[in-house]
Specification:
Layout lengths: L1 E6 L2 H13 L6 E5 L6 H11 L15 E4 L5 E5 L6 H6 L2 H6 L3 E5 L13 E7 L5 E7 L5
Parallel strand pairs: 2-5, 2-6, 4-5
Antiparallel strand pairs: 1-7, 3-4, 6-7
Helix pairs in contact: 1-2
């Protein structure tokens, strides 16, 4: 299934992320695509809120590669901006994170083609104005 959403502010992008994450099963992967400053981290902040986690702690893990937010369903927030291939993602323990049963949100997924097995949710961000964003969500496990 594919849905298109238009947000007009950072808070609306966060609210969309919260609504999206409330329905995610343990082990879900959200592959986020889009240019710098298009709302990916705001969306993940919302995901944290939707999962009952402290969204105030969410920041871009550009230099650390992954930030972990613990809860009943943990959130693993990856930033692939500095990686050159899917092999590097596997080198940092991608499969271990998947096995932990949390939700993985992966910014800059375009930098790790082939890393996902086809059951991920693809979330594509496009800036359409100064604060406006088009966010397209598609995919996910066929069982959902």
């Amino acid at each position: 299934m594919k849905t298109t959403h238009i947000t007009h502010s950072e808070s609306e992008t966060e609210a969309l992320g919260a609504a999206f994450a409330e329905k995610l099963p343990a082990g879900a992967v959200a592959a986020l695509y889009g240019d710098l400053g298009c709302g990916k981290t705001a969306f993940v902040r919302g995901m944290a809120r939707g999962m009952g986690l402290d969204e105030a702690q969410v920041s871009s893990p550009t230099f650390t590669i992954v930030n972990e937010y613990e809860g009943e369903r943990p959130l693993f927030h990856f930033d692939m901006y500095r990686l050159a291939s899917a092999d590097e993602l596997f080198d940092i323990g991608w499969e271990d994170y998947l096995a932990r049963g949390g939700v993985c949100a992966v910014e800059w997924s375009e930098n790790v083609p082939g890393a996902f097995e086809g059951d991920e949710y693809a979330v594509r961000f496009r800036r359409t104005g100064e604060t406006d964003r088009e966010i397209v969500i598609e995919g996910g496990p066929s069982s959902c």
